Amino acid sequence: LYHDKLALLRAHPCGAPEEAGRPFSLLFLGSSRTYDAVNAGAAGEALSRDLGKPVSAFNFAHSGAGPVTTA
To answer: What is the pTM of this model?
Structure first.
């Protein structure tokens, strides 16, 4: 169910191995409510600007996920 998202995460800066200089990672988890409501790109940009440090955000939420897949 999450295999496709995991492949995207591994290719994203959030999924990179921890190294010096890697941006702070923010991972959003949840159901379709999170999937539809969160703009990870905008969140990462706003946090980077406000914190003065690089932040990389990724929305790992899944559309159509019911209580069994989000538990």
So the answer is: 0.72
Half-sphere exposure of 2 (CA within 13 A, CB side): 13
Quote the CA–CA distance of 67 and 52 in Å, as a whole number.
37
Name the DSSP class of 24: E
pLDDT, one tens digit for every residue, the chain (71 residues): 566 777 777 777 776 666 767 788 888 988 888 999 999 999 999 999 999 989 999 898 888 756 665 55
Nearest to 12 by CA among 65, 55, 49: 55
Which residues fall within 8 angstroms of residue 8, CB to CB, at 6 or more apart? 58
Q: Which two tokens stand for residue 29?
A: 């988890």
